[in-house]
Records
---
Amino acid sequence: MGGNTFGNIYKLTSFGESHGAAVGGIIDGCPAGLSIDMDFIQNELDRRRPGQSDITTSRSEKDSIEFLSGIYDGKSLGTPIAFIIRNKDTRSSDYDNLKDIFRPSHADYTYQKKYGIRDHRGGGRSSARETVARVVAGAIAKLILAKDNIEVIAYVSQVGDVILEKHYTKPDLSNIENNIVRCPDQNVAEQMVKIIEEVKKQGDSIGGTITCIAKNVPAGLGEPVFDKLQAELGKAILSINAVKGFEYGSGFSAAQMKGSEHNDEFFTDNDRVRTKTNHSGGIQGGISNGEDIYFRAAFKPVATINKEQNTINSQNQEVVIKPEGRHDPCVVPRAVPIVEAMTAMVLADYLLLRRCDI
Amino acid sequence: MGGNTFGNIYKLTSFGESHGAAVGGIIDGCPAGLSIDMDFIQNELDRRRPGQSDITTSRSEKDSIEFLSGIYDGKSLGTPIAFIIRNKDTRSSDYDNLKDIFRPSHADYTYQKKYGIRDHRGGGRSSARETVARVVAGAIAKLILAKDNIEVIAYVSQVGDVILEKHYTKPDLSNIENNIVRCPDQNVAEQMVKIIEEVKKQGDSIGGTITCIAKNVPAGLGEPVFDKLQAELGKAILSINAVKGFEYGSGFSAAQMKGSEHNDEFFTDNDRVRTKTNHSGGIQGGISNGEDIYFRAAFKPVATINKEQNTINSQNQEVVIKPEGRHDPCVVPRAVPIVEAMTAMVLADYLLLRRCDI
Amino acid sequence: MGGNTFGNIYKLTSFGESHGAAVGGIIDGCPAGLSIDMDFIQNELDRRRPGQSDITTSRSEKDSIEFLSGIYDGKSLGTPIAFIIRNKDTRSSDYDNLKDIFRPSHADYTYQKKYGIRDHRGGGRSSARETVARVVAGAIAKLILAKDNIEVIAYVSQVGDVILEKHYTKPDLSNIENNIVRCPDQNVAEQMVKIIEEVKKQGDSIGGTITCIAKNVPAGLGEPVFDKLQAELGKAILSINAVKGFEYGSGFSAAQMKGSEHNDEFFTDNDRVRTKTNHSGGIQGGISNGEDIYFRAAFKPVATINKEQNTINSQNQEVVIKPEGRHDPCVVPRAVPIVEAMTAMVLADYLLLRRCDI
Amino acid sequence: MGGNTFGNIYKLTSFGESHGAAVGGIIDGCPAGLSIDMDFIQNELDRRRPGQSDITTSRSEKDSIEFLSGIYDGKSLGTPIAFIIRNKDTRSSDYDNLKDIFRPSHADYTYQKKYGIRDHRGGGRSSARETVARVVAGAIAKLILAKDNIEVIAYVSQVGDVILEKHYTKPDLSNIENNIVRCPDQNVAEQMVKIIEEVKKQGDSIGGTITCIAKNVPAGLGEPVFDKLQAELGKAILSINAVKGFEYGSGFSAAQMKGSEHNDEFFTDNDRVRTKTNHSGGIQGGISNGEDIYFRAAFKPVATINKEQNTINSQNQEVVIKPEGRHDPCVVPRAVPIVEAMTAMVLADYLLLRRCDI
């Protein structure tokens, strides 16, 4: 199936290797007549852009986007929206000595096994460079959602052992973009930055988590059985490079709870149906119930580190490597807009699917 | 899209309400010439069957299966395999007084919002009764996998606060079916049973986790970008009723780790490429690397409890309910074969997809 | 992909071999709250039923349908609608001597090559017995279309060299069901019946064509480029057993026309946009324009004939056969409801897809 | 669904408006390691290129292609192959006065009804300019097929009332590219050219037919029931602009035939199973049988003509137009590579699907 298309009605097909000519995609199924806010899209790309701060990779990509189709006079035509972003700051020579080497915890070995061939430069197709297309499609999805007042917000809730313990309803989410780590609590943010800087100095990397919230999702989004809203969200998030886990609502803590504690009782608040608690995370039976949807995703530490490691080459010989490629010491700050993008794509898709219910 | 089909090449379309005439499905894409071991399929169904032990619901369904097509002389024809399982022990009258009530943390409210109509009896389509079709399709998927020597094994690793702390490689997995809770450690199993019995006495329910392992998966299964193997597994598992979280390999613990700790170094073991550690959980860049694939899923406590709860009815009036319907005090023992089934379906599907790579 | 599912939103997955236990299917994506008129569905099945007149096969199937899910209190639930029709009058022994023989112009040889195994009884999965599922799904599609006042009508326009020359707008379509051949012109119908009876006496079979019209289709149905409305209709019709050709609007006669003759000029008729001619067949650029959609399909003569024929067996040995199986001397009378069903399914699907446009 | 993706395993998603920045597409599912012959691809594009001879439109597009991804060192990576072709010779001002006018038998009106917005310049997305992407994907599909020795060849078999009566097996197909109309019979070709020139002088257009043959297709390609090989081929061809009809094998002539005439008897030719006749067109039960696959497609005359025509504008007012846009007097010569491309895409897709059968 190729695996490069996401969505049912609102669909992104993406393309591009890290050091190829360009990355980009085609969005099919965007409703016609939508005003395409180019500044907003570029701003979303800037949030993901490498080189945006001291704690991200020093690869410097402006990521300026060119739209090739599907937009006329500032509005979507209903036809495919194609876009490309040229790769500029590729230092492919950094990878010359890695051509035949399988780096630990990268996709070098598995791509070689699957395809019998690979573009080793910068990780080729397996690089997170590909997520630039997701951010574009996510930005347009957000424009669709905005017409229904739906908002998607994510933030960094953990870096290494620095954890923002507060429930997502506590911190002031308007602070997220006020620090380079994208944590809404300024004190915690500073600790996170400190850890990342330390790890960077060591040539190492560190993991983290992102919390994401979708507000004002109307009740009724989701499909029964296999395409439950949480299942599609989980797939969307688990398809992002480095994600190792996904939990929504009560998540893993539900394993310790009793039904009498976990059940969310319904009540009416000025004719609006609400639940007193929200362990369900805004989804019941795979379908949104109108409460906030929220989830958490775990990211592993980046595999690229500037440290000696044992591994093998394509002749199965053991070798020692110490890669020089540029890398993020911690991906989660830059992954915030990616998580939002995937979430927005799922919600826009299900919002459109919803129209066929009755 | 309906949401009742799973898979790309090996596909299950399922149907059925909890108290309707029957549940079942159609498997399309099963390769031709496969010997269909009926005893094995029935045995898998028996592992999921309600009423199989004291710690499961007392609804008594024999779940005997009738195949309607796609099999001839004991072998698959390559054509659709349709099967039905009649619902027998439905006590629909138990639900008469719930007809207009939205039970807390059930799908009553969300189905009503989505469809404007619902079959309230036994939860209708939102009931886990539907998973019987998954177990059938999973059993046949296991037969496909067995030809490549691939095995899928799951067990209960947590019930409430009783946790089997051991890494999945430690316990003797041949013990799993030796106790009614399906935990490979006999001591821990006993504690789990005790908790479930207690909770049952209280008319309450309790959550838990399941750990699943796939052995002998060849390197090269998985699709890049959106259809990564872990993304499809995550979706498969998150589509099971009551699942709240999914983590694979190092999972959420990766958030605290450094790259130098997390990276799995390659080495060769008699010409076979292996990794020294397996934080990757057998998947790198979305593609299997030949190591064990393993993951953990969190289940919430069942929403049906025999306790008074506040909620509302379809006229938005507040009401108090105390449901009398039969239910499982803890779903995880019966969910073990369901987790295995979904895992087997994903792997069989990707094994078939794999054939188109080169 | 299996090939047993049709549709995007409104989807039928069908199953069943000619002499297996049952045929049937699952309809996914039917909107909720639709009144399911059981008499209408059975009536559509009766129009397709074998043994309905002297000019059809003598296989006698009542084709009584059992619905297993998706309907409650006479209304669709939005969940999958599963249905089965048991095979009753199978005389499988008629096929014993054909077990290893590849009948000319049947699918025996190609199924064997594709799958390495086949159910030879009555043609197995390749039998037109499978179309019973299409008629059920088409009947429910008609119920969806009826809410928008859309009608689908087909009739026999040719049998052998007896051709109803009149343009589809001329004959009185209310006469279609007044004769056993389903031709709206009584005189022509009689000639058609005569030919079929003759051919039947000879143990031979004869081809024919069906003309189909969809009225009141609103402008705007269809997808650009690959999923043009005519492309999907063409696929739907060409997937019916024995169909050899499809043309819509001006069809093959367009090859001889000039643009100045063929172009359909627009005008307004009481504010409704109309075209003066309708060579476009109600579709322009792949999208309906509000005029009648009409097309014609060619059917080959049934391959089963009671005449001696040379062929080979599975050991590649040349053999002479004279099959005794029951068969239709001409399929077109019974194919009328099948053509309507496929057309209705496409239109219902595209009507639902249409909701996502803007 | 958008409608801009074609294929199951080998998939093309295309984009682009006639006068937008570029047209192009993404091919997903191309097997890895395929040598990509750039000269061959450009040559296929040149066969479709406007301005290639006196009987095609004078729009002059070099159609030089840029590949952006999926190819490395001249070989396919198994990852998406993205490509763009810039639109150069757009004279959008030709269309200024048509901005609010619905041209007869174009898609102006239907796109406006569907989307509420359209790019009127050069027909926007509805222009056959889009087929350039099909030719690229078809060229790569031909490279896949070539490895199995499968060939796809098409030619013009009718222009207006000039018909190449000969059966496809008679003419010398190596002559096809020896004349500008792409007819293998030099005499008939000259008559065709004469007609087209005449029609061009009149500012009019003319229809035609194309015959296509696929040779060396192995037995066993195709899926049962809905995705029969002829159904997918029919859809592929009917999705091409201006196509009004599709028939394969005996086609519409089958309607007049008896079973005893039409049946293709099997025999063995040096152990190879063959049929004496080939009314089946190489496909039985939806699956290839190893004989030549052949079909014929009817094209209507181009809707753009330089003649006065009555129509309406978007205010429903009647207007008279005489378009000045450049156009092909007859599309069939340039449509030959497009028909081949769609056929090659279907066969490559089904060749890959075939691998999952057993």
---
Amino acid sequence: MRRFGGIEAGGSKFVCGVGSGPEDLESIEFPTAGPEETVARCVAYFKDQERVEGVGIASFGPIDSDPLSATFGYITSTPKTAWRNFDFAGAVRKALGVPVAFDTDVNAAARAEFQWGAAQGLTTFLYVTVGTGIGGGAMVNGRMLHGRGHPEMGHVRVPHDRARDPFPGNCPYHGDCLEGLAAAPAIAARWGQAPHLLPSDHPAWGLEAEYLALGLLNWIATLAPERIILGGGVMARKGLLTGVCGRVMELMNGYMNLPAMVAPALDARAGVLGAIALAAAG
Amino acid sequence: MRRFGGIEAGGSKFVCGVGSGPEDLESIEFPTAGPEETVARCVAYFKDQERVEGVGIASFGPIDSDPLSATFGYITSTPKTAWRNFDFAGAVRKALGVPVAFDTDVNAAARAEFQWGAAQGLTTFLYVTVGTGIGGGAMVNGRMLHGRGHPEMGHVRVPHDRARDPFPGNCPYHGDCLEGLAAAPAIAARWGQAPHLLPSDHPAWGLEAEYLALGLLNWIATLAPERIILGGGVMARKGLLTGVCGRVMELMNGYMNLPAMVAPALDARAGVLGAIALAAAG
């Protein structure tokens, strides 16, 4: 059994793990600190383990994930200033002396669902996460979509009915893009309460379903995915996925066949498993 | 030199051509009639030519372009009832006895630009046409994006400021999706005049640039293309491409690096050349 290491690098916590997949995964997690200190903890963890063939990093972003770029493996223009322009993949590679693969957290989670979860056997699908931010990772014709830089799917623009919803949106770049209207901080700012404290019959959830359905329509019209996996903290709300699917169907109005829209099959380990899948893919 | 045949099948006219590329292309065009009569004219044209190795069809849609589907090569749910559920590729293949490749008109035009035009050397790009409808064909990692069915990029939803623009949109399925707000028939319906009759200082063009920029933002956020080629009758309006680019830049507000947005390099022959490229690709 080939063993790989995975680093799920989030804005608030890191998960490091080793294994070949969900069956034998071992992992630890700790809070994100500055880049040197945090990478040192990752490196110490991997040095304590049996040697791995390579390490994958599933990183918060924006990042440079283009292997042909001079700054491949760097975190780029993040608001976390200590991490800006940090050679993340390079630091891990130098410390451990193994190949390091590097991609966005959503692309890695999509890979994990492809390898072990809800996207097995597909060639064109979309993984979406709705939490602190909104992001999407897409596989097209059996390969991850990177493009120039990487997609920023949460920043699509959607209709915003200001009579129904006067909240102006809180994306620092775009105001009322999808992320600015429908990520967890937008819900909290609009209603004055964290999403998990809002009861299931609160109008917040109908509005949330509306915005997510509009975002999904745009991704479906552009990518025509075979399936869409919807994960993240906000999507864990009971009934939301059903509400979103119903609204997508109404809004599409029979024009395109709709993909199945499903919950992730992997639990909170999708990130670190995705990083391991990334390392295995080379 | 390998020679192929191409059929550009449009809702109002057909173009048939033979050749290996732009250098030696010969073609004819005629109005679209019913499917049997129109295919008979295509077949007669090809029988008069030197034998070709295969034929590509760049078709209006919606179509079934999935080679694994039982109805591959069919026109599907088009409003042109005579063509609905017509085995287009099958009819041509039976009559000519050569392999027939089949894809959407926009995917074929994208292929032509990839092979001979403004997308040479790229691996992830988008071709958009703005005319009677709005459509997009994307290459991702060097292969055309098909997905489940095919994308319908013109049907993305965009913000619609009804105070600035009370026109409700004219998409029969979605009302004010992008196509319902910004394709040529929407411009004509909103202003009571065909787009080519509206002077360049008419407010129609600022509004058109706004909607197209919002659509482009959505495609850029989802696909992160290296370049976007903007063709079609509406885009031929002098100054519009510049206006669209400027507005995309403002709306993106520095969040993502923007792809170059350029005019097509091929002229009106892109469709039939795309059909030939499709045949050559197998």
